[in-house]
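Model: Ready when you are.
Researcher: Fold this.
Model:
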Amino acid sequence: MVLVGRGGAGAQEAAGAVPVSLRGWDWGTVIDAVAEAASARNDPHLWRLVDALSTEAGGPPHPTLGYPRA
């Protein structure tokens, strides 16, 4: 569920996809967190998400960010 608005009583559930805008540093934090989870769970689906996010952010196509990648 994605809520649109400033939160609280005025928030409404979004009807569809909601664009997300983050600063570059924030995207790096998201990518790092997903890479950490992918490594800890040995999850190839999460690694594919890391690859896609990194590429879209202008980074390398298969980063490890220092985490073991199976």
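Researcher: Now this one.
Model:
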Amino acid sequence: MTPSRASSAPSWGCGDTPKSGKLPLHIDVNPTDRDQAAELERLLEIGARPADVGQTGEESWHVLADPEGNEFCLLRRQLSGRP
């Protein structure tokens, strides 16, 4: 997942090789300009999908997968958009 500098929409960077096993890197995403529900809606609209990794349903985060199947978590805490 490569962030686009022109907008806050990630570029999924889909390749020809499907995912084969766990990613060596875990990505947590915090919204910076909207709440978690709005960011979840936006990510689903651009191709993310819910991923089941054994969560109970009581978590404060959402586990999603990009179009290649790479899992990442959308956290509840909104961060400041400033560096």
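Researcher: Key takeaway?
Model: Confidence is low (pLDDT under 50) at residues 1-7.
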